[in-house]
């Protein structure tokens, strides 16, 4: 007879191939060696001290742009990438954000939309971690409404000149290239902007209480001049940046379940060992009810992520399907973390355990790359045929 496994109650591992399990194990081992022993300290300090060294380790393992093909990139499956995202975020959401911004935003934008010259210039080095990218879409006054961005790009001879600012940009303080979306006379266009270009600057955003391990920047562009080849020739309008967001949101569907898994397993272990009133707190009905509900939502979310991954590999995903996953899984992951915190009680707010760190991080994941309300409206429009965005 099958044996019930408390950490895999639906036997989801049976749905994975040996290669997929190996990918997951490799990522988990790398994080256990290079990140896990330090991540709580980095969170408390407000950042990893040497982020480019982390990118080198990520590159060695083939995590950067791992689902993209060509340009010496691994070309692995969407499920492989999803499993990696789950492991990265089980460690810390900021760590997953570093990889996601590099591979699913900056690299994907260049891979999908840039000229061949720019692809050859940037993608091989970004895949190894030698070069780092960031993605400039959000602005100080324009988050959920990127079509109203104020950053501009104007032609000047054969060059383009960019002016404006971008906000909440992960990897921005140490990136080598910034993908910048700007208003032009031809509509919104994308540009691959070397960060050493005169007029480009990045300022670290301080006083964050979430995603503290990863660096977040405000980018300022003052007369930044780039050649015509830096402009993405094949796309204009919001189609370009939104296609990148859809790609990155898919990784969040998996990643959020990694944070939820870490919190659930911490609470489960704590409930088995913490003694109150002469017995483990896991022996009380209220604690068991919490654990049962968390297990339900965690493994339903993992099933959803796996289904979307298999479908992405087979036929692709609609924007609405990705919104379905992002909305459900991040919201449920945050609830799992909050419930785990109650089981740990006072210990739940200590960085000796990962739960409060995951809770704080997921408050950002809940709203970046589409707030709850935006994903509800995406699904609402798809269900009713009515546009309620404005």
From TrEMBL:
Which keywords does UniProt give here? FAD, Flavoprotein, Oxidoreductase, Transit peptide
Tell me which residues make up the Acyl-CoA dehydrogenase/oxidase C-terminal domain.
236-383
Q: What is this protein called?
A: Acyl-CoA dehydrogenase family protein
SUPFAM superfamilies per record: Acyl-CoA dehydrogenase C-terminal domain-like, Acyl-CoA dehydrogenase NM domain-like
Name the coiled-coil region(s).
none
Family, according to the entry, reads as follows:
Belongs to the acyl-CoA dehydrogenase family.
Is Transit peptide a UniProt keyword of this protein? yes
Per the record's keyword annotation, is Transit peptide included, yes or no? yes
Q: Which cofactor does it need?
A: FAD
Record-annotated Acyl-CoA dehydrogenase/oxidase N-terminal domain positions? 17-130
């Amino acid at each position: 007879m099958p044996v019930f496994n408390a950490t895999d109650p639906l036997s989801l591992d049976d749905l994975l191939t040996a290669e997929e399990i190996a990918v997951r194990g490799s990522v988990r081992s790398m994080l256990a060696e290079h990140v896990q022993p330090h991540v709580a300290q980095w969170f408390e300090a407000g950042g990893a001290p040497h982020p480019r060294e982390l990118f080198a380790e990520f590159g060695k393992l083939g995590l950067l742009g791992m689902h993209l093909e060509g340009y010496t990139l691994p070309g692995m499956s969407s499920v492989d990438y999803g499993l990696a995202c789950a492991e990265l975020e089980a460690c810390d959401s900021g760590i997953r954000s570093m990889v996601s911004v590099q591979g699913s935003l900056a690299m994907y934008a260049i891979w999908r939309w840039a000229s061949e010259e720019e692809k050859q210039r940037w993608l091989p080095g970004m895949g190894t971690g030698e070069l780092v990218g960031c993605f400039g879409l959000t602005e100080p006054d324009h988050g959920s409404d990127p079509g109203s961005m104020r950053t501009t790009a104007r032609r000047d001879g054969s060059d383009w000149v960019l002016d404006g600012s971008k906000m909440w940009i992960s990897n921005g303080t140490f990136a080598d290239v910034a993908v910048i979306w700007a208003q032009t006379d031809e509509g919104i266009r994308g540009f691959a902007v070397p960060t050493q270009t005169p007029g480009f600057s990045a300022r670290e955003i301080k006083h964050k209480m979430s995603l503290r391990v990863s660096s977040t920047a405000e980018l300022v562009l003052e007369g930044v001049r780039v050649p015509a080849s830096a402009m993405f020739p094949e796309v204009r309008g919001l189609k370009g940046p939104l296609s990148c967001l859809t790609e990155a949101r898919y990784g969040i569907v998996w990643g959020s379940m990694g944070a939820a898994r870490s919190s659930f397993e911490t609470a489960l272990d704590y409930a088995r060992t913490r003694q109150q009133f002469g017995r483990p707190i896991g022996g009380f009905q209220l604690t068991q009810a919490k654990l049962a509900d968390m297990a339900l939502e965690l493994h339903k979310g993992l099933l959803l992520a796996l289904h979307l991954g298999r479908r992405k590999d087979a036929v692709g995903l609609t924007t609405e399907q990705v919104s379905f996953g992002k909305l459900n899984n991040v919201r449920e992951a945050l609830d799992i973390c909050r419930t785990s915190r109650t089981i740990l009680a006072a210990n739940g707010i200590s960085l000796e355990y990962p739960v409060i760190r995951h809770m704080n991080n997921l408050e950002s994941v809940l709203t970046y790359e589409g707030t709850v309300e935006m994903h509800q409206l995406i699904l609402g429009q798809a269900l009713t045929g009515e546009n309620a965005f404005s």
